[in-house]
């Protein structure tokens, strides 16, 4: 068994590849903070690059920094859990969208009262999702790893990647929980009260300079809920908004799925290196 470990260890290079480190650093500088899908796509490439770098890193150089890597590995578990929960939330949003769009297609059979009930249920589901997102935002805030300090180049890069992961997850959560101002009191006050409140303060809102699909959908929902009667124009506008959100959620779900796989691969690669000296 000892001979087997010796063969695996001797195949590792004597030092970290500078090209791999530079490539990761370049990806870090390219990561946007206001575009969810682009951010997650580049983040996936970051974790993929980390896997390659770890697979070509000398285990002997990492051994003295074992405690730092252990802390970062613990943090990676939290990030994996957050990514998994975000995937679950996008799946829930897709299911709710499918039910509401199906209700609109069956409108001529159920009438306006049925449509109002389905919209009311959808708005309630949005509120529940916002509560779950608020909990995830709080959990994300607790993943502060500023106490980890090391001069090791790989550890320094991993710290930066962890920080960027937090930023990207926060952007996703805030975009999903984007809220609009409270509507004026109207005849349908019961449903209006169900429209989602802000899950964070104004300082925590996404500063993109433009509304995202979820904000526009929530505005359409408020207009629909505030209307005294259901008109074809209102239905058409809301359905159009729901269609755009459906596309955005589909893309987001795919991006999160890809990122989740890359994060697992990076974690396994790092664990493989550290296990050589256990």
TrEMBL record:
<dbReference type="GO" id="GO:0048367">
    <property type="term" value="P:shoot system development"/>
</dbReference>
<dbReference type="InterPro" id="IPR004320">
    <property type="entry name" value="BPS1_pln"/>
</dbReference>
<protein>
    <submittedName>
        <fullName>Uncharacterized protein LOC108836439</fullName>
    </submittedName>
</protein>
<dbReference type="Pfam" id="PF03087">
    <property type="entry name" value="BPS1"/>
</dbReference>
<keyword id="KW-0175">Coiled coil</keyword>
<feature type="coiled-coil region">
    <location>
        <begin position="235"/>
        <end position="269"/>
    </location>
</feature>
<dbReference type="GO" id="GO:0048364">
    <property type="term" value="P:root development"/>
</dbReference>
